[in-house]
Amino acid sequence: QVQLVESGGGLVQAGGSLILSCAASGRTFSIYAVGWFRQAPGKEREFVATIRNSGSTVYADSVKGRFTISRDNAKNTVYLQLDSLKPDDTDVYYCALKVSIAARYDYWGQGTQVTVSS
Q1: Is the pLDDT of residue 27 over 80?
Q2: pLDDT band at 117 (very low <50, low <70, confident <90, very high)
Q3: DSSP labels for 44-75?
Q4: What average pLDDT is seen over the chain?
Q5: Can you name the residues that pair with 37 across neighbouring β-strands?
């Protein structure tokens, strides 16, 4: 089992920045990839970015060039740097983990709220 805890959300003005953290504990040696997703009430969950154990990253087109995903293996933590924030980025942000290339994102954190004011 792996546990994920997000932190770092908050209220920020448009154009501002935030750093979200996703701390993993438990069977962290079995991590293949950690992803960030976001969801607003009444909407489907949306993929934001992912980082694989190889270090390769993938971003949604809507955040490419504005968000950066990174990791600190020593701290078992993945970060999401959010820059040039827009009101449309207002969502609950979740981190999730998959243990192999064929697996789904089976482990999820509780989410952290990001609110961007105009």
Answers
A1: no
A2: very high
A3: --EEEEEEETTS-EEE-TTTTTTEEEEEEGGG
A4: 94
A5: 47, 94
Tell me the backbone φ, ψ of residue 75, rounded to 5 degrees.
-100, 0
Please give the order of strands across the beta sheet that includes 18-26. Answer: 2-7, 18-26, 77-82, 67-72
pLDDT digits (tens, 9 = 90+) for 43-90: 999 999 999 999 999 999 999 999 999 999 899 999 999 999 999 999
Give Cβ neighbours of residue 78 (< 8 Å, ≥ 6 apart). Answer: 21, 22, 24, 34, 36, 51, 69, 70, 71, 72, 95
Going by their DSSP bridges, the two strands 18-26 and 2-7 should be labelled as: antiparallel
Q: List the structure tokens of 56.
A: 């390769």
Amino acid sitting at position 22:
C
Residues across the chain: 118
Indicate the residue type of 2: V
The alpha carbon of residue 60 and the mean position of all alpha carbons in its chain are separated, in whole angstroms, by 12
The H-or-E segment that residue 82 falls in is: strand 77-82
Could you give the count of Cα atoms lying within 13 Å of 110 in the half-sphere of its Cβ?
7
